[in-house]
Amino acid sequence: MGFVTTNTYDGNGNLLTTTTPSPDGGTTPGSVTTFTYNSLGELLTIKDPLNSVTTLAYYPTGLINTITDFQNNVTTCTYDPRGNRLTSKDPINNTTQFQYDAMNRLKKIIYPDTTNTQFGYDTRGRRITVTDPNSKVTTYGYDDADRLTSVKDAANNITNYGYDTESNLTSIQDANNHTTTFHYNANRWVDRTTFPSGLLETYGYDLNGNLTSKTDRKNQQITYTYDALNRLTKKTYPNTSTVNYTYDNDSRLTQVVDPTGTYQFGFDHMGRLTSTTTNYTFLTSRSFTTAYGYDAASNRTSFTDPESGATAYAYDTLNRLQMLTPPTAFGTGSFGFGYDADSRRTSLTRPNSVNTTYGYDTLSRLLSVTHKKGTSTLDGTTYTVDNAGNRISLAPLPSGKATNFTYDAIYEVLTAMQGKTTTGSYTYDFVGNRLTSSGTNYTNNSSNELTAVGNNTTYTFDNNGNTLTKVVSGHGGGTTSYAWDFENRLTSVTLPGSGGTVSFAYDPFGRRIKKVTPSTTSIFAYDGDNLIEETNSSGTVVARYEQSLNIDEPLAMLRSGVTSYHEADGLGSVTSLSNSSGAIANTYTYDSYGNLTASTGTLVNSFRYTAREFDTETNLYYYRNRYYDPNVGRFISEDPIGFASSINFYPYVHNGPTMYTDPWGWIDLDITQKWSTREPSFWDWHSGNTSWLRKVSAECMCVPGGWQIRIKVSYLLDVWYARGNDNAKAHEQRHVDLAIDFLKRHIPQHDSFEKGTYRLKETCEYYLRRDVTGEGFSDSPFLDQLNADDRALKELEKRLEPWWDIYQRW
Asked: Which member of 44, 129, 267, 660 has the greatest number of CB atoms within 10 A?
């Protein structure tokens, strides 16, 4: 579109400045990032567009000694004579140590609390064991071609992998001896998957490798159409309904039209999302519009909601959110955010003077969340953790009984006890299916579908693994029926007896936009993935929500003219609502898996366990891509990303609900990340609002829109290889080609928008593992392989943590 990013270089080819296009295409100057170097060409300083400077110092060998941010927080590294990093000391003087064997392979990581993780290798240099800080051992097996063939976890559950002569992954056999097989076409693309049930999914491709058709296990075929630039332009469902995609010349998605409505996106000349306009077909009386503003570093500085309410954001010199001021309709005052030198959130202040503090151990594990007004503790939670970080106790504040947890060898929660009283007990099979809960038996089939609970509840499923019926026998029982669309999204729940039907509708990005119960109709509007507004069937506002820039962190609710403020525990679950004067109005208590065990107050509030929306009519939690049933501790449909998440598509967070959440219903999120600086989301990538990512790519290539992502990740791959003492591979073009090819397939094309959020680091891990092992681009156990491969990202990441720290701080 003619928007030019300008780079300048010195005589040695070192990048000196990067200047972005003018954001408005006029007189407003573009953002400038400046780099300086020493006489050896080593990068010394990076000055961002807001004049915050990061400074690097080196040893004579060229290895990084210190990294100092603009607030004089220093990270220090030491190395052995062979260039292996021996220590990394963070800005608050916590030191992590690294030990290596004679072959320069990482054999032990010693953490600041003296616990450690150990790695074992065979004579061919393949990582064969990983021993965690609790001495739990995971073992990896290989064939003569160095391909991962088995993973034995700490509970001795074995998963086996098979390959063809081209090293394509052809089978996965789980610990229950159930096998999924994969068939490939001549181009080594998966064209058929056979599940343990014997049912098939088939896939078609064009000559460019674009997915053109998918026929699921119900024999429903979705077809995909692309333009000459391999951009998805149409998705056609079996009932002939379509989703149509439109792009600008920079391949930014500008409009999507489907049966639910028209969704439009506007961008500035720097590729940042500046506006959205949503027109629902089922609500013709109004539109939903939003607007975004940014500073020179592309931090969001303003957001205008569909009711023209303006939220303002302010940042510190490290680009961390420092203040958030909601629209005036919520009342006066702002939210304040405080951090320590490690960028961990230490405080949150609210307009109603209920303030929160966060406490951590030396490994940055959250130990306390305390909500106070003045000196009075109103709510909160304290935790103790074991050597591996599992929470072994939880104590509510200001008073209440502590809950103690026990785990099996792979950290599935086994018991929850308050004193001598067992409040929850669970057992599981070899692949994570629940077998018992407090003495009640669970039955599962070869597809890991839950078929019965006890003697009075049975379930049926369709061929795609979606729950069809739940039948409860005896007094007060009945049949609950579930209906699904072609994308395996829940469209209705018909309740027993006179309960009626609850129906749902979704936009092309998978967000729930409508809920109809026998008594009410709710229509929803979003800021990215976060819910910001609820209206009735005529478009009149029922509730507005103020969210932080994190996923699933509601801050305030405006309902019926009354503002309430959310307080959460260390899992992100809403434990209380306070009113404008700072008094507690509602409280919530949950068991390990999110069942509400006690509550007080009368305020209407849907954000509950892990801050997800709870549907009181169905007793299900809406986790975006799927619905979760806390009563059985599992989702009611399969994980949409399949084996990329787990060997079993149903259990909630691998049965580790005390430490993990699953905001999008498809991959676990370690809750410790929630209280650090914000992770980039899909909507950031789509909008171009990723300043630190753009800066990472500065020395590689500066291009707007979707290509930014591909180039950035390609660049990171090269950096990791180069700094990981593997210079022979560092700049081989095949690495870049594979990286771009992977992202071309998985981010801007089919189903990418429905799949919520990829974090950059996880995506890098995904294709880095494939690149290192030479495998194709089918679903595969990449996390297992990543953990097993001594040349893969995990080790490089440990060696190069200072570099990653720079990127995260940007």
From this structure: 267
